[in-house]
Amino acid sequence: MLSSTAKNVYWMGRYLQRAKTTARLIEATQRMALQSSGKEAENVVAIFGMEDEFRHSQEQHQSQGQTQRQGGGRLVDLVDFLAFDETNPSSIVSSIGQARRNAREERNNITVDVWESLNGLWLELSAKLRGNRASLDRGALIESVKKQAVMIFGAAQVTLLRDEAYNFFQLGAFLERGDNTARILDVKYHRLMPDGRPHAEHLDYFAWSEVLACIGAVRTYRRIYRSSLDPMKIAELMMLRRDVPRSVHHCLWMVDLNMRELADAYGTRGEADRLAGELHARLRYARIDKVYEVGLHKYLGGVRDDIAALSDTIGKQFLLD
User: Fold this and answer.
1) Over the stretch 135-154, which tens digit does the pLDDT of each residue have?
2) What is the DSSP string of 23-56?
3) Is 132 helix (H, G, I), strand (E, B) or coil?
4) What is the pTM of this model?
């Protein structure tokens, strides 16, 4: 397979997953804002590591004569920045637009169902954003993005040929998802438990439910643990449960699996294969009590650094980055 083809489908998977994760985070943030002191905007931009960019965006609005909005207005600014700001390369509209450009280059390597689903989402977004922003129903549009992104991934699962293109699409999606889950857990856990303790004397049930809602796992938690919410169990579910599709462990398992399938197809292995196996093994054999002995924040930071290193190595090994 040409490296350009591999690169396009790999980044199509990453951008689609990024848009879906952002939509989920915005929904959870809007719910939390109804119960909180108004600091949810800072928490979400911290997950994406975009505090400076968001602050610069706010300053630009002020310099252009726009009044800075407080409280609920600041949340509107956050939604616009993360969802509809075309100058933000990680916004939903930018991510969907880039995924569509990647898909358009690879029409022969994806199915009609995948292309039409993705193209339809882009056309809907574009039409809504060309209209009057003041009357834009942001909540409905975010919900539509989330649902249609799920449909695109569903179309990929049931229609794509299981070849190298599919493997690279999976690699991109699961690397992005694993990194997103690690970031969400790290930032939100330590906002609620700044000292990183495994248990809370007085638990904010609504706030911890929203942490799980960011990965769509509120009911999953109840099915697995059949107990009240506990920070240590939430961390275990989001990090170490292989049977939870958005857990870090599941994502790295799928990355390792697709790397092994690519190795079989190409008949060779490289540094990226070794890193993928090593990272998967670390999560596979980890125990949550040992993670807390190391420190949850330190452990998650190490995992995120290794995911970034693996992404760079995949780029060098396959994508000619």
Assistant:
1) 888 888 899 999 999 999 99
2) HHHHHHHHHHHTTSSS-HHHHHHHHTT-HHHHHH
3) coil
4) 0.91
